Amino acid sequence: MENKTEQIALLLDNTKCIGCRGCQTSCKQWNNLSSEKTEFFGGAGYQNPANLSGSTYTLVKFHEVVEDDKLKDWVFWKTQCQHCINPACASVCLVGAIQKSENGPVVWDDSKCIGCRYCMLSCPYNIPKFEWDSVMPQIRKCFLCFDRIEQGQIPSCAKTCPTEAIMYGTRNELIEIAEDRLSSQPDKYYQHIYGLNEVGGTLILNISSIPLEEMGYPKNLTTEPLASRTATSISSISPVVVGLGAALGLFAIITNRKNEIAKQKAKEVLK
Ligand code: SF4
Ligand code: SF4
Ligand code: SF4
């Protein structure tokens, strides 16, 4: 990687993923994220936890491919922040708590976040999560192991993956690898690099045996960066509304904690 400012990226190849969840575990270990108490999830994918959260930055999901009422195949895929080249989340953050770094990763800064949650609403992939159970809640999401990259190491998930389903490199070199896989094995891959152009392009590039939209990714995304739209509309928001957003965040936290306490008391009564 000679050019320091060249955008770095991950290539996720579903056809190589065996669903071992090593990436999920190593992400938690490196970022010191707690485990989650889960209940059986019977929805699409059956995975636990069901979704990304403030303590799960990456999650391996599962999809059954059914044809004529028969199970034809199953696929695993890794979900996380797509690290947009022009991130909508950063464009709506009025205090600069989410920012695009020089060589690509979209990172956040705890000390600046006011909890307004506009970033959550703006993200086309529904990625940023709020720490609802924390006393001092913050927005959380994958930051592409920026701390490791700065020290010349590769992201924790990519280092752990035993099958090269996650590859790390510059965006340009990973696009070349993805194009080569698609053209040399046309029967194996759905002919599309997801993230090449969606919302202006992302640092996470996905190739797969089936369209990612069948696995729950948003359909018909524009190739125009959403940031250009969100930045225009957010510029008209007054500081009063921003303050209101932060106040609503605080109200939601208090309500959430009250509900938790009530649930706890109900459990004690039933003991
Ligand atoms: S996927 Fe969502 S959270 Fe991640 S950079 Fe893009 S807009 Fe931001
Ligand atoms: S890049 Fe780092 S923070 Fe992001 S999913 Fe991988 S291990 Fe987790
Ligand atoms: S570590 Fe690699 S093979 Fe294992 S679940 Fe993650 S992406 Fe798939």
How many domains? 1
Strand order of the largest sheet: 8-1-9
And the CATH topology?
Alpha-Beta Plaits
Q: What structural class do you assign from the helix and strand content?
A: alpha+beta
Ligand types: iron/sulfur cluster
Anisotropy-based shape? globular
Q: What are the segments in which pLDDT stays under 50 over at least 5 consecutive residues? A: 251-263
The topology string of helices and strands comes to EHEEHEEHEEHHEHEHH
How many E strands? 9
- Please describe the biggest sheet, giving its number of strands, its sense, and whether it closes into a barrel: 3 strands, mixed
CATH-level-2 architecture: 2-Layer Sandwich
Strand content of the residues, in percent? 15-25%
Average pLDDT metric: 86
What value does the Rg take, in angstroms? 20 Å
